[in-house]
Amino acid sequence: MVERKEYLDRLIQWKDEQVIKVVTGIRRCGKSTLLLQYQSWLKLNGISEKQIVSINFEELEYEDLQDYRKLYSYLKEHLCEGEKTYFFLDEIQKVPSFEKVVDSLYVKPDVDIYITGSNACMLSGDLATLLTGRYVEIQMLPLSFREFLEITGMDPDRGLAEYMRDGGLPYVAVMDRTPEKVDTYLEGIYNTVIVKDIEDRQARKESEPDRRKITDILLLKTIARYLASVAGNPVSIRSITNYLSSNGRKVSPNTVSDYVEALTESFIFYPAERFDIVGKQLLKANRKLYIVDLGLRNYILPRSEYDLGFSLENIVYFELLRRGCRVMIGKVGNTEVDFVAEKQGAYTYFQVTADMTAKETFDRELKPLTNIRDNYEKIVLTGDRLTAGNYDGIKVMNLSDWLLGR
Q: How many Cα atoms sit within 13 Å of 1 on the Cβ side?
C-alpha cells in the first residue's frame, strides 16, 4: 500500500470542517487507498470503528445501495447519535442522484463526509448546484517524480528514465516492472477508463437528452491516440476533426467536442489554456492537452512516436498542478512561453527543453523570457546539467533538481 502523504495531510487538515471532501482523479491513482489510510489515521487518533461508515461502490456487496433511496436509509441507520460520524463513499458516481444523499447528510449535525469519483462530471450539474460553496475538491494525480524515487529507491537519472517510460501510477512503482507486465497493467486501466468511466458518465447525462451519447469506443480511442501523439502541441476541435477526415472518418465538430470532453472528464487529458502575458487575459484559440501519465501515453502510442522534449514538458505541467498552480500557455508578441504558473496572484514563467548545450537552442529558449517586461520569476528547466546558472535574471535549472526541490 503506497502512502500518499501529501494528500493524507490535506484530508487531515480538512477533518471536521463543515465542507464535503471530494477526492477526484483517474482510476488507480490511489483514491481508495487514501481513504483507507485516512480511516486508519482516524482510528489511531481516537475515532472508534462504529463512527466510520465506508462504502466502495466498485464492490459487489454494495450493489443494492446504488439506489439512492436505499443508500440514504442505510447511512441514516449508521449515524452515531451524540458522536461524529465519518462517511466514506468511494466511486460514488455509480449512484444515480447521489447528490441528493450527500446533500441530505450534509445538513445533519455531527457528520463528516468524504467522497471520491473517477469522472469530473460528478462535480457538474446537480451536485454543483446543490452544494455550491459547500465542498472542497482534492484533485489526486499519479505519483510525483519525488514519490516515485522514494518508493523505488532509484537514483534520479535512472529514475527519471523509468518514470518517463512507465509512468507514475502507484502500483506500477511497486510492481516487478517488465515491459510486458507494465503494458498489461496499463492496458487494463486504459480500457476500464475508456469503457466503464464513460458508461458512468453516460448514466449521469441521461437527464440531459440534448447531449450526444458516447457510443463509438473506436472513435473515442482514435481521438485519445491522436491527442496523446500531439501532447504539448496546440490543438483545436477543428484540427482533430480535420485529422479524422483525412483518415477517412467523417464526423462533425460537435461530436468531436463531446468525445474530447469525455476524455478530459475521465482525467486522461488535462487542458492548458493560452494566456496573453502582456494583457494578463486568457485567449480562446488553440489550447494544449497533456496526458495524465506518460506510461499510458507510451502504451497508447508506439514507442517511436513520442518526443523527449514534450515528455519533459508533460512532467512539468503536472508537477506545477501538484504545487497548487493554475497552469497556462504563455503568449508574448509572436513568441510562446511553455508555461505560465499562477499562484495567489503571482506568476512564474517556465521554458522546458531536453538540452540547452547547443547555442541555437540556448538562445531560442531564452528569447521568449527576455521579451517579458514584468518582474516575475523566469525559469528554464533543462535535462542537461552544464547550462545551469543565472542569465540576466533568467534562472536555468536542471529538471531533476527542480522536481526534487533542490
A: 11
